[in-house]
Amino acid sequence: MRDAPAPTLTLVYLARLRDAFGASGENVVLPAEVTTAAQLRAWLAARGGAWAIELAPGRAVRIAVNHDIAHPETPVQPGDEVALLPPVTGG
Amino acid sequence: MTVRVQTADFDVGHELALLRGGDRRVGAVAAFIGTVRDVNDDATVATLTLEHYPGMTEKALTAIVDEAKSRWDIVDALVIHRVGALAPADQIVLVGVTSAHRGEAFAACEFIMDYLKTRAPFWKKEATPDGLRWVDARASDDDAAARWNVTPGTKA
User: Fold this and answer.
1) A90, B52 Cβ separation under 8 angstroms
2) Measured at the alpha carbon of residue B128, what is the angle toward residues B123 and B132, in degrees to the nearest 5?
C-alpha cells in the first residue's frame, strides 16, 4: 500500500500580507471543491475581514504553488506549498 | 551562472573578476549595482529591511538568467541580491553579464534587472520618521519589464 498523501496544504504569507493576516502561514484542509489557485484565493477571501480586503478581486496578489508563479487555473492539492505574494519591490 | 541571496555586502571588483574568470571569449562586461536611496516618495529613509521568499527566490532568479541566456549570446551572468537590514547608500543588488560584444552584455544586464524588479520575490520595508511602511510597487517597473515582450515587427 502507498502512504496516504498529506491531508493539509501549507499556506505562506509574505511581507505586507503577513502583517495584514497576523501570521506567516498556516496549514489548511481544503474543501473538496477547492482545486485551483483561483478557487483557493476565493475560499480564503470568504473568511472576511483582512482576508476579504487583501484578496478582493482586482487586488494585486500573486500566488506561487511550490515556488512557481501560478495562473488562476493552476491546480492546488494537499501537500503543496502555496504562497500569497504582494507586488514585489526588490532590486 | 551564479545566483546568490545574502545578508553580507559584496565586493564588485572581486565578483566581476570571478565572473570573467580569465575567459578569452569575453570582450565585454556589463554590470549594474543597485543602492539604497535615502529619500523615497518624499520621506527620509533611516533604514531599509529586505525580505524574500527562501526557496522561490533562487529559483526565480535562475529562471530570469536562463531567459536572458536564451535571448542573447552571452558567456555568463551573475546576480547577487542582499536581504536583511540596509542603510542609505548601501549596495543592494549586483547584476553582471559577460559576452563577446557590448550590445549583448548591456541588453542582457538591463533585461535581468527589469525582470528581477517585477518577478523576483523580494520586498522592501522602510523605516521613516512616520514609522515602518512596506514600499509600494511602481507601475514604471512593470512598464520597464513589459517592453522586453515586444516581438520584432510590432510596436510597444
Assistant:
1) yes
2) 50
For B82-141, write each residue's pLDDT tens digit: 999 999 999 999 999 999 999 999 999 999 999 999 999 999 999 888 889 999 888 888
pTM for the full model? Answer: 0.90
Among chain A residues, the shortest Cα distance to B116 is held by A91
Amino acid occupying residue A30: L
- Inter-chain residue contact B123 with A69, CB threshold 8 Å: no
C-alpha cell at B6: 545574502
Question: In this structure, what DSSP letter does residue A75 have?
Answer: B
> Is residue B89 classed exposed, middle or buried when 0-12, 13-18 and 19+ CB atoms within 10 A define those classes?
exposed
Name the residue facing A90 among B59, B81, B136 (closest C-beta).
B81
What's the rounded Cα separation, in Å, for the pair A76 and A30?
9
The conformation of residue B149, written as its DSSP 8-state character, comes to G
